[in-house]
Amino acid sequence: MPTTVLTYIVRRLIGAVILLFIVSAVVFSIFFLIPRAAGASADDLASRYVGKSAGVEQIHQTAVKLGFTDPIYVQYGRFAKGIVVGQDYNYGPAVEHCPAPCLGYSFITQNPVLPDLLDRLPVTLSLAAGAAVLWLVGGVSIGVISALKRGSALDRASMSVALAGVSLPIFFTGLLTLSIFSYGLGWTAPGGANPMDATSPLDWAYRMILPWITLAFLFAAAYARLTRAGMLETMNEDYIRTARAKGLRERDVVVKHGLRAALTPILTIFGLDLGLLLGGAILTETTFSLPGLGQYAVQAINNNDLPKVLGVTLLGAVFIIMANLIVDLLYAVVDPRVRTK
Amino acid sequence: MSTNAAPPDRIPQDRPKADAFLHVKDLRVHFPTDDGVVKSVDGLSFSLERGQTLGIVGESGSGKSVTSLSIMGLHAEGTAEISGQVVLDGDSLVGASAEHVRQLRGKKMAMIFQDPLSAMHPYYTVGHQIIEAYRVHNNVSKQVARKHAIEMLDRVGIPQPTSRVDDYPHQFSGGMRQRAMIAMALSCDPELLIADEPTTALDVTVQAQILDLIRDLQQEFNSAVIIITHDLGVVAELADDILVMYAGRVVEYASAHEIFTAPQHPYTWGLLGSMPRLDRERAERLMPIKGTPPSLINVPSGCPFHPRCSYAHLTGGASETERPELVEITPRHNLACHLSTQDRQRIWEHDIKPKL
Predict the structure, then answer these.
(1) Angle between helices A153-167 and A201-234 (to 10 degrees)
(2) DSSP string spanning B57-122?
(3) Ranges of residues in chain B whose predicted pLDDT is under 70
């Protein structure tokens, strides 16, 4: 049994690596090939990365230095090689070695991309983890109560709030909560409070509570609806009747028998959502000026800074692929019927 | 014709004895819906002693399962309007607190369901589910409960119970699952066991084994058993008494022997006629009951069976206007039918019996 699980994991990891290369090739192509196909020359591309006063000769030198004059496959090969074995970067006066996995250097700041990403990851991690706990606990409990009190005022009220939650954009709820709770009442930290500067866990929560609530509100709404639908279905199953026939307390019937079964599909969605968020919560980070991966991605795209865009996209892809794998493995833990197949 | 002109052999029934182990009197279970009130059970009475088996027989929608669920108190709060009396060992269940009935469920009365695959939780091992049932009512450690679960699995004939106890329901065959269900139901020595179509989802070869098992265990535990089925063949050998239900009402209630040797109700004749018999020549076709069971919202006037009854015209219109009362026509034989004794005897002897 463990060997089959192991080969399964290895097979999935090999698949993940292949998938990552495809993702990187596609992103690479979008940012390089499409401008070239539209008629932009290597010098046109390079002109974005030099000052306004640069002469034609200087632009051309930059194009050569950035490798824009090489054929596309050489350029991509250089990038891919950097990830696997590392890369030497010649920025004029000296040659710097960037160890594997090297995601290249920013065209603009000349800084290596990976340390930048790792710098910003904890911020995004803080945001995603806190929000995930909130939305999972909140969404699932509201969903369960709604399902059990189906049709009641409570059910209708929470489902209306849930509808608002999925419909209202983050920049709306975010700015609204900021203006009320932070600038109005002064209960929470203002926007731009970096959680990594926190002096204590309490301070950390104080800085993050509004972004957590804002992001969790969006997800909790969807989870409440999912849980409600799942509970309505499982509570009608025959095994719930059996559990009651055994004389179990209603609380145990609901939690151990009903919720246990209803949670399985929610686990799948949760894994994927979390993987997605770890790649950067762009709207939340922008609204609250949090220096996370999402904000980094936005800046990189605005500046046409291809290595940064590639780096953050690949990291996001890694998280999603890993989340997928973990969810699939967890599925076997949760549902014994998957295990024996 | 009316009940005033009832033949002299109809004396008021007094069969359901109030001091019986299980005593059900005038049980009504109505479900209010947007389309009207669904009268699933409409005035049901019977009684059952320890060690006795009652078969409740009828088509789908005749109110069999609803009856069993209301005895067990398993109708969701607010969905069903239940009236009448259900007295289990002197303990009145209709109107009792939900918590009181919960404590009786599983311990004093237990239930086996139709489809053991969907009736067992797919995410828990068979052992876990039996242990859970035992520990609700018995304050014992998990180890003790596990030992008990293995004993119960052994008792119902599961091979290698010490290892199978950790299997999941989907790893069991259909018959083994039903055995495990029975082990779960019997884990707390219930005095009343309700089996709702216990063999319907099983292979024919396994059906007989399960029925034998239920009978053996009943003798061992001396419990009262109610078997609910649409198949008279299932209760033929098992039941002491048989109650035939139609549209939420009792149409015939007698000993199993009477039901099979001298049935009096046209519906019972229909059920018997629909049973394939291998011990007879295949000269005759099966005689299915024509039509379909009635809507329980708009139950036909008079005798609810009259639109499907081949002999309704013999009652002089009474079957269309007047609901026949359940009366004791001979000792221990109750019947709700407008047909005269002479007509019934004649039809049974000449038209029905020779064809069965």
Answers:
(1) 120
(2) E--TTSSHHHHHHHHHT-SPTTT-EEEEEEEETTEE-TTS-HHHHHHHBTTTEEEE-S-HHHHS-T
(3) 1-18, 277-285
Strand B333-335 and strand B249-255: the pairing is antiparallel
Domains of chain B by residue range: 13-108+191-356, 123-189
Which residues of chain B make contact with A242, given a CB cutoff of 8 A?
Answer: 113, 119-121, 181, 184
Dihedrals phi, psi of A140, to nearest 5 degrees:
-70, -40
Provide the residue ranges of all domains of chain A, joining segments of one domain with +.
2-112, 114-339
Sign for the CA dihedral angle at B235, B238, B239, B240 comes to positive
Q: How many CB atoms lie within 10 A of CB B313?
A: 11
Tell me whether B230 touches chain A (CB under 8 Å).
no
Confirm if A201 and A119 have CB atoms less than 8 A apart: no
Total-model pTM: 0.80
> What is the model's pLDDT at position A113?
86
Cβ–Cβ < 8 Å for B40, B22? no
Instruction: Tell me the backbone φ, ψ of residue B336, rounded to 5 degrees.
Output: -120, 90
pLDDT of residue B1: 38
Minimum CA–CA partner of B137 in chain A:
A247
Q: Does the beta-carbon distance from B168 to A337 stay under 8 Å?
A: yes
Looking at domain A114-339, does it have CATH number 1.10.3720.10? yes
Nearest to A260 among B72, B123, B181 (CB): B123
pLDDT at B283: 54
State the Cα–Cα distance between residues B135 and B149, nearest whole angstrom. Answer: 10
A149 at B interface, C-beta within 8 A: no
Interface check A1 vs B, CB under 8 A: no
CATH superfamily of B13-108+191-356: P-loop containing nucleotide triphosphate hydrolases (3.40.50.300)
| pLDDT for the residue numbered B279 | 65
Here the ipTM equals: 0.85
Using an 8 Å CB-CB cutoff, list chain A residues near B74.
241, 244-245
CA distance A249 to chain B (A): 7
CB contact under 8 A, B74 and A242: no
Q: Which residues of chain A have pLDDT under 70?
A: 1-2, 51, 90-94, 340-341
In the numeric block, which tokens belong to residue A183? 């600038």
Cα-based torsion angle of the residue sequence B209, B211, B217, B218 in order, rounded to the nearest 10 degrees? -160
DSSP B325: P
Q: State whether A247 and B118 contact (CB < 8 Å).
A: no
